């Protein structure tokens, strides 16, 4: 069948799944006084519409920063403003200052969900379609399968359309950046990434690979010649984009500083709730939070993060190819997730995006990781009442991923690029690594299913009330760490052999 | 798997209907099943379905005991909703099995094709992802997948020449939902002609001497025993008249609340137009006209003002007249199992066109079997495209909340894209599948859809004429459905002529 019809069918199916999930409950539904992320977004629409720009990030009588104060960069605020204008046309009660706190109604829910869908349709989905059609190799059928699995990734759907956030916008912009860099349009790519950065500051997880890739490219072109011009062009694009986004705040440096203080809150602790990263898991054995002072916690996490991200960045600097870039994105975001300060469980989505880019090249590992990332958010999803969508989307994703991408067939040692492991583990007897990986996959899926079921059905013992969230986050952490090591190994081993790839298609 | 995504919170009145039946069959003794009327949704399906609900209710009690109390009208706890949805998904397994059987009967074409282009695959997708079935079963809530499974399975058995099994399945189906009486004549005549008369003469006409009473008796005993099984307890209790009155409620109006796109919709519109014209031209006195309006959204009796009123007997006569040519043709010139399928289609469509109180969901009885013919022949593919698009669009008013608008629009779009591209690829040739006029008509559907769903609710006419979008939808779709009906009749005649020239074997 023609590609366009298959592509449109995939996109439509993706839209149906998203809308189907969005008919479920959202975060903080019916739970005064603070509600949840849904109320936060609605409140931001209220604040941005009714107050002048200068006051958005300030603590005034009209703007109580303790009640969901704005803590994302200005582009989020502008987006909320646009939504607020539309909301005002439909029903002014939704954004009335002070009086609309905690406003909940079916019509309003429909409106909010629609804004997420519109943002996705405009930004995220076109980027995914273009990426899969132009920057992946293989037959048309393979590309469409990749597109389908990419769009079906449960984590993003559940968080954006269930829990309620606008991750699709920031991830979409980042994806446009990757797309542009892949096609060789460097300034456009950097502009897109700056937009992503100005939408959510957590995109900093991806910043280092972008920087290293572009810098490496400039160096390769020769710092005295064309490389220099490229560097200047990129730098000016970045500066101009930032200036445009921060324009209302640049007139007064103290105001800009206030914004920065809001978006980087260093007063909080090393971690909050149960997150699948090193510090939280380490906390089970050694109570880090109580041993170290808050300052030393910051230093420790910064040092570890930098150490973790250093090898992959250096490698990318020396070898700025698109393949290395994708791997470096995955590595950097994982490193930040695992070792950084004040990480939320939703930040795993930032690591999931680069891994989605690798769906075509390393299908089994990608599907494995994406499933674990969805699983790691189970406690959050259960709190929002999203059990049924979680189960259905995960099962569908696993099924289609394994079936359409033939993940379990394409896992010979060479395809998984496990050759390097042999060199590292030379002391151990010859093992069939591919078989091990496949068995690990089966066992992990079983464990994840079991833990999900247990979290729902069983009641934890009274002296260990957090047993299941802890188990979930520790399991996820082990998987993430393993994947982090794997991606590092792959980045350092040789480039994919083109000949063997062509044979499979 | 995909259908589980349709576990939406919205449920229509049919949900309450089935919950009520679960409660009735579980809590009350058998003798009271057809007398119970606490709720307005009385049991109006044949006894076998009641037994089916009884079986389900035993599973239901593990989910939520409260739903089985008859007094709990409109009870809809999350557990209840979950159970009902799961039961539909589960019984759809029957449907999936039937689809597989049908796909095996489809003639494969020569030449190597990858899986996407094989007729059986296309058929499987067209049936499993039938937009109408998805919408009606999973959002609007009914057990049609389960019932259509029986229908398709029996058709498949006939295509495989296993007539007795096919007859058994159809008898079961009739006792599950008596709407399938529409297609019973096709079965009756086909089986009588092609099964009981074991051989034909050389020119295809009947050979009276080859009549096999044994086969007739076999058929009769199968049908009889199934009916006895389901109706037996009620006949023993002397409740047969009550049961029959519940099954065939003729007190309802000519048209369902949402007008099915059949002849009577056009008839009504004609009547209305003549009335308005008459009043304008001062030929009629407005005060003389009966007040009863047929444009309310409720089920009522009404009179036509200008044209003669329609009674149930008239519709019966019209229906019989419309299916008579089809039945006659497979009697005189049997076209084998495929001729039977065509006749079944015509019976279904004929009764849809002319029946009394037809629900628009009944169009599915015609659409699903037509899928089988569509993947095999070019001309049928063309008819299929017109019929499915209009038929499915006529189902749109069933789902009316704004929350579900994107879902139904997107699903419909998906089905349309797939059916068009797949069938076009399958029957690739110099001539396109659709006549230009047909394409224009179908494009006009888009205009109508936009007008009804988006423009109308926001316009000032919403208050004055709330029934207008429904009216426009049914009238526009009736044109399409009538057209497909006529074309199918034409194709029946040409098909029989072809069959005469080719093989004589049944």
Automatic annotation (TrEMBL), chain A:
Q: Where is the signal peptide?
A: 1-22
Q: What class of enzyme is it?
A: transferase
Q: Which reaction does it catalyse?
A: an alpha-D-Man-(1->2)-alpha-D-Man-(1->2)-alpha-D-Man-(1->3)-[alpha-D-Man-(1->2)-alpha-D-Man-(1->3)-[alpha-D-Man-(1->2)-alpha-D-Man-(1->6)]-alpha-D-Man-(1->6)]-beta-D-Man-(1->4)-beta-D-GlcNAc-(1->4)-alpha-D-GlcNAc-diphospho-di-trans,poly-cis-dolichol + a di-trans,poly-cis-dolichyl beta-D-glucosyl phosphate = an alpha-D-Glc-(1->3)-alpha-D-Man-(1->2)-alpha-D-Man-(1->2)-alpha-D-Man-(1->3)-[alpha-D-Man-(1->2)-alpha-D-Man-(1->3)-[alpha-D-Man-(1->2)-alpha-D-Man-(1->6)]-alpha-D-Man-(1->6)]-beta-D-Man-(1->4)-beta-D-GlcNAc-(1->4)-alpha-D-GlcNAc-diphospho-di-trans,poly-cis-dolichol + a di-trans,poly-cis-dolichyl phosphate + H(+)
**Cellular compartment(s):** Endoplasmic reticulum membrane
What's its membrane topology?
Multi-pass membrane protein
Which pathway does the record list?
A: Protein modification; protein glycosylation
Q: Which GO terms describe its cellular component?
A: endoplasmic reticulum membrane
The record, for InterPro entries, names: Glyco_trans_ALG6/ALG8 (IPR004856)
EC number(s) per entry: 2.4.1.-
**Which molecular function GO terms apply here?**
dolichyl pyrophosphate Man9GlcNAc2 alpha-1,3-glucosyltransferase activity
Q: Where are the transmembrane segments?
A: 110-132, 144-161, 173-197, 229-249, 323-341, 348-370, 390-408, 441-461, 467-489
What keywords tag this UniProt record?
Endoplasmic reticulum, Glycosyltransferase, Membrane, Signal, Transferase, Transmembrane, Transmembrane helix
* Source organism superkingdom: Eukaryota
Q: What does this protein do?
A: Dolichyl pyrophosphate Man9GlcNAc2 alpha-1,3-glucosyltransferase that operates in the biosynthetic pathway of dolichol-linked oligosaccharides, the glycan precursors employed in protein asparagine (N)-glycosylation. The assembly of dolichol-linked oligosaccharides begins on the cytosolic side of the endoplasmic reticulum membrane and finishes in its lumen. The sequential addition of sugars to dolichol pyrophosphate produces dolichol-linked oligosaccharides containing fourteen sugars, including two GlcNAcs, nine mannoses and three glucoses.
Q: What PANTHER family does the record tag this protein with?
A: DOLICHYL GLYCOSYLTRANSFERASE, DOLICHYL PYROPHOSPHATE MAN9GLCNAC2 ALPHA-1,3-GLUCOSYLTRANSFERASE
In the record, the note on similarity to other proteins reads: Belongs to the ALG6/ALG8 glucosyltransferase family.
Q: What is this protein called?
A: Alpha-1,3-glucosyltransferase
Biological source species = Sparus aurata (Gilthead sea bream)
Automatic annotation (TrEMBL), chain B:
Q: Which GO terms describe its cellular component?
A: endoplasmic reticulum membrane
Membrane topology for this entry?
Multi-pass membrane protein
- Which InterPro entries is this protein grouped with? Glyco_trans_ALG6/ALG8 (IPR004856)
Instruction: Enumerate the subcellular locations listed in this protein's record, separating them with semicolons.
Output: Endoplasmic reticulum membrane
* EC main group: transferase
User: Where does this protein act, in terms of pathway?
Assistant: Protein modification; protein glycosylation
Main localization of the protein described in the UniProt heading: endoplasmic reticulum
> Is Glycosyltransferase one of the keywords UniProt gives this record?
yes
Question: One GO biological process from the UniProt record?
Answer: protein N-linked glycosylation
EC numbers on record: 2.4.1.-
* A GO MF label: dolichyl pyrophosphate Glc1Man9GlcNAc2 alpha-1,3-glucosyltransferase activity
User: Which keywords does this chain's UniProt record carry?
Assistant: Endoplasmic reticulum, Glycosyltransferase, Membrane, Transferase, Transmembrane, Transmembrane helix
Q: Which residues cross the membrane?
A: 120-141, 167-192, 213-236, 310-332, 339-356, 399-420, 440-458, 465-486
User: One Pfam family from the UniProt entry?
Assistant: Alg6_Alg8
What family classification does the UniProt entry report for this protein? Answer: Belongs to the ALG6/ALG8 glucosyltransferase family.
State the name under which the record lists this protein. Alpha-1,3-glucosyltransferase
Query: Which source organism?
Result: Sparus aurata (Gilthead sea bream)
- Gene name in the database record: ALG8
């Amino acid at each position: 069948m023609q590609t366009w019809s298959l592509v449109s069918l995939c996109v439509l199916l993706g839209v149906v799944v998203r809308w189907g999930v969005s008919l479920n409950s959202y975060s903080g539904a019916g739970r005064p006084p603070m509600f949840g992320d849904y109320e936060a977004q609605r409140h931001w629409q209220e604040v941005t519409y009714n107050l002048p720009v200068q006051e958005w990030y300030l603590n005034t009588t009209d703007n109580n920063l303790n009640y969901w104060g704005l803590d994302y960069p200005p582009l989020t605020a502008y987006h909320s403003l646009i939504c607020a204008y539309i909301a005002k046309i439909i029903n002014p009660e939704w954004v009335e200052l002070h009086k609309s706190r905690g406003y909940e109604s079916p019509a309003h829910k429909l409106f909010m969900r629609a804004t997420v869908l519109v943002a996705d349709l405009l930004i995220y989905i076109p980027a995914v379609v273009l990426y899969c059609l132009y920057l992946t190799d293989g037959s048309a059928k393979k590309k469409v399968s990749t597109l389908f699995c990419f769009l079906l990734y449960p984590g993003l759907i559940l968080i954006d359309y269930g829990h309620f956030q606008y991750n699709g916008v920031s991830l979409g912009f980042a994806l446009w950046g990757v797309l542009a860099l892949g096609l060789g349009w460097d300034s456009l790519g950097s502009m897109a990434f700056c937009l992503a950065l100005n939408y959510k500051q957590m995109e900093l997880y991806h910043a280092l690979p972008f920087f290293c890739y572009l810098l490496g490219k400039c160096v390769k072109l020769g710092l005295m010649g064309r490389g220099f011009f490229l560097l200047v062009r990129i730098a000016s694009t970045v500066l101009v984009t930032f200036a445009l986004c921060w324009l209302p705040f640049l007139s007064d440096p103290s105001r800009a500083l206030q914004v920065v203080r809001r978006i980087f809150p260093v007063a909080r602790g090393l971690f909050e709730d149960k997150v699948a990263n090193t510090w939280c898991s380490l906390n089970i054995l050694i109570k880090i939070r109580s041993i170290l002072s808050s300052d030393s916690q910051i230093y420790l996490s910064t040092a570890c993060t930098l150490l973790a991200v250093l090898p992959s960045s250096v490698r990318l600097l020396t070898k700025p190819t698109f393949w290395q870039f994708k791997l470096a994105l995955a590595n950097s975001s994982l490193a930040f997730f695992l070792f950084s300060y004040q990480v939320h469980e939703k930040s795993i989505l930032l690591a999931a995006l680069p891994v989605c880019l690798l769906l075509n090249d390393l299908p089994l590992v990608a599907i494995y990781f994406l499933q674990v990332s969805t699983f790691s958010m189970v406690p959050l999803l259960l709190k929002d009442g999203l059990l049924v969508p979680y189960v259905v989307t995960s099962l569908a994703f696993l099924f289609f991923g394994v079936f359409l991408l033939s993940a379990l067939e394409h896992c010979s040692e060479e395809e998984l690029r496990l050759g390097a492991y042999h060199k590292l583990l030379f002391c151990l007897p010859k093992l069939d690594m591919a078989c091990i990986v496949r068995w690990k996959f089966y066992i992990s899926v079983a464990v994840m299913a079991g833990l999900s079921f247990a979290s729902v059905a069983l009641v934890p013992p009274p002296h260990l009330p957090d047993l299941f969230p802890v188990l979930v986050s520790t399991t996820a952490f082990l998987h993430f760490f393993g994947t982090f090591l794997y991606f590092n190994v792959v980045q350092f081993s040789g480039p994919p052999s083109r000949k063997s790839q062509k044979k499979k298609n | 798997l995909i259908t589980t995504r349709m576990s939406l919170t919205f449920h229509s009145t049919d949900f309450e209907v089935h919950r009520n039946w679960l409660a009735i069959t579980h809590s009350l003794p058998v003798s009271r099943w057809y007398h119970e009327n606490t709720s307005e949704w009385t049991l109006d399906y044949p006894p076998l379905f009641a037994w089916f609900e009884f079986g389900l209710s035993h599973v239901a009690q593990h989910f939520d005991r409260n739903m089985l109390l008859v007094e709990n009208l409109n009870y809809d706890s999350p557990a209840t909703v979950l159970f009902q949805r799961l039961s539909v998904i589960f019984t759809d397994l029957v449907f999936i099995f039937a689809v597989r059987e049908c796909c095996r009967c489809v003639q494969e074409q020569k030449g190597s094709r990858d899986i996407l282009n094989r007729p059986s695959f296309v058929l499987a997708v067209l049936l499993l992802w039938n937009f109408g079935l998805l919408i009606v079963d999973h959002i609007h809530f009914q057990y049609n997948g389960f019932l259509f499974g029986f229908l398709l399975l029996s058709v498949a058995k006939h295509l495989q020449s296993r007539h007795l099994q096919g007859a058994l399945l159809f008898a079961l189906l009739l006792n599950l939902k008596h709407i399938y009486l529409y297609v019973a004549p096709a079965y009756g005549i086909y089986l009588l002609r092609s099964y009981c008369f074991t051989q034909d003469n050389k020119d295809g006409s009947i050979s009276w001497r080859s009549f096999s009473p044994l086969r007739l008796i076999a058929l009769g005993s199968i049908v009889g025993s199934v009916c006895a099984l389901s109706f037996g307890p009620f006949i023993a209790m002397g409740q047969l008249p009550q049961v029959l009155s519940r099954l065939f409620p003729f007190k309802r109006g000519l048209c369902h609340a949402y007008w099915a796109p059949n002849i009577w919709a056009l008839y009504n519109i004609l009547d209305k137009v003549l009335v308005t014209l008459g009043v304008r031209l001062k030929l009629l006195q407005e005060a003389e006209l009966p007040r009863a309006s047929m444009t309310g959204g409720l089920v009522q009796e009404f009179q036509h003002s200008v044209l003669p009123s329609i009674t149930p007997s008239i519709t019966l006569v019209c229906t019989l007249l419309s299916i008579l040519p089809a039945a006659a043709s497979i009697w005189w010139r049997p076209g084998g199992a495929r001729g039977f399928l065509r006749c079944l289609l015509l019976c279904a469509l004929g009764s849809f066109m002319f029946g009394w109180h037809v629900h628009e969901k009944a169009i599915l009885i015609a659409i699903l079997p037509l899928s089988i013919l569509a993947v095999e022949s070019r001309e049928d593919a063309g008819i299929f495209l017109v019929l499915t698009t209009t038929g499915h669009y006529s189902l749109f008013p069933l789902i009316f909340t704004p929350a579900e608008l994107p879902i139904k629009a997107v699903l419909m779009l998906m089905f349309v894209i797939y059916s068009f591209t797949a069938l076009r690829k399958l029957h690739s040739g110099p001539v396109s599948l659709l006549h230009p006029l047909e394409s224009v008509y179908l494009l006009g559907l888009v205009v109508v859809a936009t007008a009804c769903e988006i423009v109308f609710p926001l316009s000032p006419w919403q208050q004055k004429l709330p029934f207008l979008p429904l009216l426009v939808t049914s009238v526009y779709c009736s044109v399409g459905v009538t057209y497909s009906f006529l074309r199918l009749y034409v194709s029946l005649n040409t098909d029989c002529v072809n069959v005469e020239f080719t093989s004589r074997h049944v």
